[in-house]
Amino acid sequence: MNDGLVKILDGNTFVVSDSRGDIEASLTDPTGLFSYDSRFLSTWILTVDGERLNPLSVDDLQYFETRFFLVPGTGTVYVDAKLSVIRQRAVGDGFHEELTILNHDANPVNLTVRIEAGSDFADLFEVKDALEKKGRYFTKVENGRLLLGYERESFGRQTAISASAPHKVDKQGLTFSARVEPQGEWTTDLDVAVATRAGGTYVRPKYVRGERRAQPNMGRSLERWLADAPRLESDSDSLKVTYRRSLVDLAALRFAPPVSGGRSLPAAGLPWFMTMFGRDSIFTSLQALPFQPELAATTLRALGSWQGSRVDDFRDEDPGRILHEMRYGEMTAFEERPHSPYYGNADATALYVVLLDEYERWTGDRKLVRDLESEARAALRWIDEYADLMGTGYVWYQRRNEETGLENQCWKDSWDSISYHDGRLPGFPRATCELQGYAYDAKMRGARLARLVWKDPALAEALEQQAADLKRRFNRDFWVKDGEFFALALDTEGNHVDSLSSNNGHLLWSGIVDKSKAKAVVGHLMGPRLFSGWGVRTLAEGEGRYNPIGYHVGTVWPFDCSFIAWGLRNYGFKEEAAQLAAGILDAAEFFDGRLPEAFGGYERGVTKYPVQYPTACSPQAWSTGTPLLLLRTMLGLEPVGENLIVDPALPSSIGLLALLDIPGRWGRVDAFARGRDLLEALQPRRRTLART
Fold first, then answer.
1. CB–CB of 176/113 below 8 Å?
2. Which contiguous run of DSSP H or E holds residue 635?
3. Which single residue of 133, 138, 364, 600 could bond 665 by disulfide (Cβ 3.0 to 4.6 Å)?
């Protein structure tokens, strides 16, 4: 399944085109060359003798490189072409394209080759919200190059287009007169370089396309990335394809923000979210910990550097609060959007402490825990001092920036995601159930770090007492007795927002659910109202706002399901976790191994395949991380002290599963499982199997 668009990316620079390699963007169309939240190229059209070309195939060479095979002609019946065209494109800081025309005839041919080029320099928010520009455009022809530019006061963006073959340049593009000999070829290199204005001077990124190549180390970097990850062995070919696709996509989404010192963390997703998101980066780092733990370390450092330090209503900032989203485009620069950064979420701050503890449990890196002690303490204080808007001991949210802030500040952040059973929307503030689970988990994990690393037993005891009190009150106040599930939220009157939702699974993951209630919760999660056969729906069938293709009101989100599977494992429901993993991994096969942000919540027996959600991001970081976390849950991997415990439970579709060279505080170890009656072993690198 795909949307017909071809995407290549490297961090937050990406190119989206049609299957010919052409770009014809409108103000509302997320195609083009984007970097740092600006569109640097919105028109890029190839013609030969005034005609557009037809695609034969597209080769997905790497995440940063692709190749288009084209022929002339517009008829519906293919006639053997005398010419063929190859466009090989690689992204880096802009992109490089090698254009080759092959003559398959016995006679020479003279051709006029034209590249039409232009840019609207749209801010990504302008593309998403269909807004108009406020600055001025300019176009220059200079030293054989076409320069496209946009300026607004001190803000500037520029695109420089050049070619290796002799050509003529005008303000709309480049023209080549090409003679191709019999059975011969003609070629040119095309370079599109981007630049931003800083203090009156345009500055290109550190990699410049003078060599007409993508960043020369990108291929080698990917090879090292894949080599460092654990090796998967399985009798499931589709699982192996999905695993490799996940690792490659995670590499593609690596992004080094200025505060990271050149280290990478995961950008959230293509096309709208190619930047740092607190919640998304944390969840993805948690998913990837057994595979690429350095992502978590960079995420923790970068988010700690941007941690809130003051009360700022425009940015919804508080001391200790972890950012929601960081942007670099025009609308942010002129404070038409608050994302410099924006702090409007109610979950990332608690999740920051959760990630810090989980990272230490896996890696043993106590130095980072000590380095980030003040940030973690500030995050824990935020839960009590700033998040309890109603004074009830729960985490609530309400935006202070009423114009451009986010209404819903939980992970289900669309306008209608939080509703009563009858479909009504509650007022603000809102206290969604999973936020209380995250707060509970943060306090328990913070207590562990305080006792073991920060050597502060008084803080540890206080946090544990607070967590125990929160758990007791939560299980009383959020429990819907007649339905035997936890309410989606509390409203300002303390009443249940009584929809049945997938959020119950995050409560299992956090550990806040009383054991006496867990079986009923699992029954709902894996019952017909929530479980579609492919995964757990965000909102149950029968709820007032249920819609199987509604963004957060009935679709299946793979990331959501991966944390639900982790929660099922935490409470001992191994078989149910395996069943959920099987559904999501089966769906991945229909998406060629690349799970999208979300897909339709239709019953599996009705559709026979997962229904695509129209505007889902793909690749998307926490969907890319989903197969990794599901591997962890199927193998039952859990760090305990200096050891990694393996307690596998495989779905019936997988007979053999081995994950080799799992990194952690133990060095590198292997985990094996065979069938539903497990064969397991955990050995050092000697590769000796222990059968039980």
1. yes
2. helix 626-635
3. 364
**Average pLDDT value for the chain:** 92
With H, G, I as helix, E, B as strand and everything else as coil, classify residue 661. strand
Burial class (CB in 10 A: 0-12, 13-18, 19+), 457: exposed
Q: Tell me the average pLDDT across 92-119.
A: 96
Instruction: Report the CATH number that the domain containing residue 45 is assigned in CATH.
Output: 2.70.98.40
497 or 681, which is more confident: 497
Q: Among all chains, which residue has been given the structure tokens 């839960």?
A: 383
The whole-number pLDDT of residue 11 equals 79
Return the number of other C-beta atoms located less than 10 Å from residue 612's C-beta: 18
Q: Name the pLDDT band for 2 (thresholds 50, 70, 90).
A: low
Residue 96 is inside which H or E element, if any? Answer: strand 94-103
Nearest to 88, CA basis, from 105, 64, 71, 104: 64
> 92 in a domain, yes or no?
yes
Tens of pLDDT, residue by residue over 524-545, are: 999 999 999 999 999 999 999 9
Q: How far is CA 237 from CA 60, 173, 229, 250, 562, in A?
A: 20, 46, 18, 20, 21
Q: How many domains does the chain have?
A: 1
Strand partners, 501: 539
| Lookup: tokens for 389 | 């808007």
**Average pLDDT of 543-566?**
98
Residues linked to residue 265 through DSSP beta bridges, in sequence order:
255
Domain membership flag for residue 227: no
* C-alpha torsion angle, residues 330, 331, 332, 335 (rounded to 10): 120
- Which pLDDT tens digit goes with each residue over 323-377? 999 999 999 999 999 999 999 999 999 999 999 999 999 999 999 999 999 999 9
pLDDT at 690: 31
Using CB atoms within 10 Å of the CB of residue 504, give its burial: 0 to 12 exposed, 13 to 18 middle, 19+ buried: buried
Our measurement of the distance from residue 677's CA atom to the centroid of its chain's CA atoms, rounded to an integer in Å, reads: 35
Question: 45: domain range?
Answer: 6-217
Decide if 535 is inside a domain: no
Answer yes or no: is 367 within a domain: no
Contact 39, 119 (CB under 8 A): yes
How many Cα neighbours within 13 Å face the side chain of 409? 34
Nearest-angstrom CA–CA distance, 538 and 190: 46
